[in-house]
Design a protein that fits this description.
mainly alpha, Rossmann fold, 5 helices
């Protein structure tokens, strides 16, 4: 959730490449480093602080990705699709178990 919050708030993202982080943001939207590399993490923070990492461009790209892939419309569409699939599955199960 913190990645989504950062994307929405327009702040630079610095994260380690663990779990699903790469599914939410890429190198073009965040500064991603290996989890076992504290020097790279420190360098990334310094680069952001000094303005060497195109921070504004990454922040804008992260926000665009958030709106494109995880916006309200997308969430509604996903929920509607799940409900339709459940209803279709239920109708299939119901019709196949009738003996009349």
């Amino acid at each position: 959730m913190v990645l989504f919050e950062a994307m929405a708030a327009g702040v630079p993202i610095v994260a380690t490449e663990v779990g699903g982080v790469g599914d939410v943001v890429s190198q073009s939207e965040a500064c991603l480093v290996r989890p076992d590399d504290p020097e790279a993490l420190a360098a990334c923070l310094q680069d952001i602080r000094s303005g060497r990492l195109c921070t504004r461009e990454r922040v804008a790209a992260a926000r665009a990705r958030l709106l494109e892939r995880h916006g309200t419309e997308q969430w509604i569409e996903q929920h509607v699709r799940v409900y339709r699939e459940l209803l279709n599955g239920r109708q299939t199960v119901t019709s196949s178990t009738q003996t009349c």
